[in-house]
Specification:
Layout lengths: L2 E7 L2 E6 L16 E2 L8 E2 L6 E5 L6 E3 L7 E8 L7 E7 L5 E6 L5 E4 L5 E2 L4 E4 L8 E7 L1
Antiparallel strand pairs: 1-2, 3-4, 5-13, 6-12, 7-10, 7-11, 7-13, 8-9, 8-12
């Protein structure tokens, strides 16, 4: 048996032994939380959730890109800090058939709209407010895919 490590317990060293080299076997396949899994040289495991934040304050009826155009992102949460005067449209997601779709938050909405890690926007996301009085009330937490 090989000596893998010593563990200190109450000032004494206790040898820990492997079983037929099992301590030297690397895991095969993907682990939980891995990203960029299509290339083992750039794959990594997320230790803590990453997030970037974009505050939407671009006046009315003009779309604001959450990330640079064409960049695939994962949207975590959309925060609305006070009741909306108008509507807010979140564009850039796709339905199960691959057709573009939008999510509309209605006037009066306030709170956190949790999209979770499954909300992928393959070409980025844009947010359009129908009222300039909602400037600064909409905050989007997101990260790169």
């Amino acid at each position: 048996m090989s000596h893998i490590q010593d563990q200190v317990l109450g000032g004494t060293s206790v040898p820990q032994h492997g079983t037929a080299g099992a301590g030297h076997v690397l895991p095969v396949g993907l682990g939980a939380g891995e990203r960029r899994t299509n290339d083992p040289s750039t794959s990594y495991r997320v230790v803590s959730p990453n997030a970037r934040r974009t505050v939407i304050s671009n006046g009315a009826a003009s779309a604001k890109a959450v990330a640079p155009a064409g960049v695939a992102i994962r949207v975590l949460t959309v925060h609305v800090t006070k009741a909306l005067t108008g509507t807010v449209t979140l564009a850039g997601s796709k339905d199960e058939t691959g057709t573009d779709m939008s999510i509309v938050l209605p006037g009066g909405y306030v709170g956190a709209f949790g999209l979770g890690s499954a909300a992928e926007y393959p070409s980025g996301m844009s947010v359009t407010k129908s009222s300039a009085s909602d400037d600064g009330l909409v905050i989007v937490d997101w990260d790169l895919l």
